[in-house]
Amino acid sequence: MTALTLSTAGAATLRADALVVGVAKGTGPKSGLVLAPGSEAVDKAFDGKLAAVLETLGATGAEGELTKLPAASGLKAPVVVVVGLGPVPDKEDAYDAEALRRAAGTAARALSGTKKAGFALPAGTVEDAAAVAEGALLGAYAFTAYQGGEDKLAPKDAKSKDSGPKQPLAEVVLLGGKARDKAYKAAVERALALAEEINRARDLINTPPNDLYPESFAAVATAAGKEHGIKVQVLDEKALVKGGYGGLLGVGQGSANGPRLVKLAYTHPKAEKTLALVGKGITYDSGGISLKPAGHNETMKCDMSGAAAVFAAVVSAARLGLKVNVTGWLALAENMPSGNATRPGDVLRMYSGKTVEVLNTDAEGRLVLADALTRASEEKPDAIVDVATLTGAMVLALGNRTFGIMANDDAFRTSIHEIAEEVGEASWPMPLPADLRKGMDSPTADIANMGERMGGGLVAGLFLKEFVGEGIAWAHLDIAGPAFHEGAPYGYTPKGGTGSAVRTLVRLAERTADGDLG
Prior knowledge:
Shape: elongated
Strand order of the largest sheet: 8-9-11-10-14-18-15-16
Mean pLDDT: 95
Largest sheet: 8 strands, mixed
Oligomer: single chain
Strand content: 15-25%
Structural class: alpha/beta
Number of strands: 20
Distance between the termini: 34 Å
Radius of gyration: 24 Å
Number of helices: 14
């Protein structure tokens, strides 16, 4: 993990491999490049001509734009990295936190293989410093666990020219903040803890399914629980059979790797509220007997992204010592076709006692979540939030970067939407139309796991709602779009697992601790 330091050093005197500053895009009468706060020392080293030099090189200040320059005399760092922040804000120095996160992430990605870099981006407020720290740490992420292995066919005495993949930026030095101020220190420590857990979630999502399956995921959760004082309970196949968890068992019965239900309980002695988080953890989704078509299987290791987000959020709450009880439920299974697999037309008796006719075995996430939602409801939490890569329909509706929010309480849904936007996670509130419920009526069971094709993401939400306890505020986050990024990296978003929804869940826990559940 990239190290993070809050330094009192000046940008000109910092000894580092690179120095990062920001530039914005001027508008109206002040069109052209505008140097952002933090760049003053660098501009002075360039005799006040930094903007002119950048314009000569074609820089515009657009978001995501990056320019590298050899440092001028007077700077200890040999390289200056200039990153675009987008349009100049209306109020001086009031740069949007998400713009700062993305700029810091862009710079950190460009500095892979570098030992130490100073970030002199705007950090005049605690919020700015936290955004820069968060963006830099998330942008520096790389998943290299399966790369750079020894070539056994190479001559014993040969030295490989390629020593493996570039390692992430080793150290981020945050400049311009008040290094001795308690609020700044706390904000940076929070950013470090949060980024470390988001990056751990990314690692889990990126781990191939031959190494990450329900039992091994449960082992990771158990180890983290011991490290951070979280009580962990794991229900294996025998316990699931004894407890009557028909959804988890039905989805997992086709695989050689049996299902698990993992409970992580973080408690605080002064907590007044309890938040339950439920995550879909399909460690690999073949579609089961309703096999996915060719071209749709290759990234299905990411179908446990919801469980990874819940796991990361609970550990983050523990590391931050939040005054709220947070319980995470990881519904883990591998959905495979075999002679033992659930068939379309089978009826499962769920943990709640309801029966479900399985019309499509590729609509499996809602089945494992249903059991976990019922179990979570038994503990009477103040609110439940489930997170899942649940439907392709949500991707069609909202695209690859925005997750949908459904809820049984409008105020709660609005609160989560506001929180997501605040922390920089694109989201959108979605309805739960009552008329779509009829499409899941079954002549054989209490409910079917499929309904109308149109509005499929909303149908899935309506199915889950059936398994939430009476009187409990509940929200469903369908992160099918942003959970796994297949395109080129941008900002602080890498290729592969993203850790979507972790920041939203942690901020929700913080608000709950402060007495504002929404």
